[in-house]
Amino acid sequence: MSIVAVLLLAVGVADLARSVRTAQAWIPPLTGLVAVVLAGILADLHTVADLLLLVLVVALTTVWSALAERARRRERGEAAPLLVFGLGLAAVFALAGAASPAGGEVVRWLRWTDIPHLQDLSADRFLLLLGLVLVQLSTGNELVRLILVSVGAMKPGEQAQPSDSLRGGRLLGPLERLFILGLGLSGQLTAASLVIAAKGVIRFPELTARSGLAARTARGEGALQAEVSGVGINEVTEYFLVGSFVSWLVAMAGLALSLLA
Question: Pick from 217, 202, 206, 117: which is nearest to 165 by CA?
Answer without folding.
Answer: 206
